[in-house]
Design goal:
Elements (H helix, E strand, L loop, with lengths): L2 H21 L1 E10 L3 E2 L4 E4 L4 E4 L5 E7 L2 E6 L6 E5 L5 E6 L7 H7 L6 H5 L1 E5 L11 H5 L6 E4 L2 E4 L12 E4 L2 E2 L2 H6 L5 E7 L15 E6 L5
Parallel strand pairs: 1-8, 12-15
Antiparallel strand pairs: 1-2, 1-5, 3-4, 3-6, 6-7, 9-14, 10-11, 12-13, 14-15
Length: 226
């Protein structure tokens, strides 16, 4: 076999392998939420390979048929569109939607029935790097200061809902890329590496247990996005 024939054969084999991988159908379960754990119902989940559209049900859950390697696009009124890549190692999908920066986004999400609990939805605020150039800030405290209603900074720390609690501890719960972290780690994050920040306050924090009593700050970094 000459060199040209060998290269041609290799190309054909690669094409056949790729076709087999992309054509393999699989089943996936997932959940769509906002602010990490508030379910988003009636969100559209579109599978690019077969153009099928599914909708999230109770608790934001969904079940789809897709190719082994695929793309899923999730949309809902008042939220930014999310595009998620699926590969052979993907097991379940957990999709955290972001509200649009429009002041009416909370209201649209509620009126279209995507979030049933209005109090939980309106007790949370969100900021993304699309809304502002995070890299222009020198540290995380400077980024957060003055950007969220009811959030202040005192002595190098963040206070939500004012100063003073029954326990004397004012520190909010800080979650970075789904993991609870200490202030030391939070302060080391470069603002330019941040994709979004959510601040949750009032009664909604009860879903995070005792640690969320002083409010919750949720940070998603760009490195967490595949």
């Amino acid at each position: 076999m000459d060199k040209a024939s060998f290269i041609y054969t290799i190309c054909i084999v690669l094409i056949l392998v790729s076709f087999r991988v992309f054509s393999q159908e699989r089943q996936l379960n997932g959940q769509v939420v906002v602010f990490e754990n508030i379910p988003v119902v009636e969100a559209k989940v579109q599978v690019k390979s077969n153009d099928s559209i599914y909708k999230t049900g109770k608790n934001g859950m969904f079940h789809i048929s897709c190719s082994a390697i695929d793309i899923v696009i999730v949309t809902a009124n008042g939220f930014r569109r999310e595009r998620i890549r699926i590969d052979e190692e993907t097991e379940d999908l957990f999709i955290n939607l972001r509200l649009r920066s429009n002041p009416k986004s909370h209201e649209r999400a509620y009126l279209f029935g995507h979030v049933a609990d209005r109090d939980k939805l309106f007790a949370a605020s969100s900021l993304t790097d699309v809304d502002d150039n995070f890299s222009s800030y020198s540290n995380m405290l400077e980024l957060i200061e003055g950007r969220f209603p009811g959030v202040d900074t005192y002595g190098g720390k963040i206070v939500i809902r004012g100063i003073g609690t029954a326990s004397g501890n004012n520190d909010p719960l800080i979650i970075v890329d789904g993991v609870k972290v200490r202030y030391e780690y939070f302060n080391m994050i470069a603002p330019g590496d941040v994709k979004s920040i959510d601040v949750i306050k009032d009664g909604t924090t009860a879903m995070y247990g005792f640690e969320g009593g002083n409010g919750v700050i949720i940070v998603e970094t760009k490195s967490s996005v595949k």
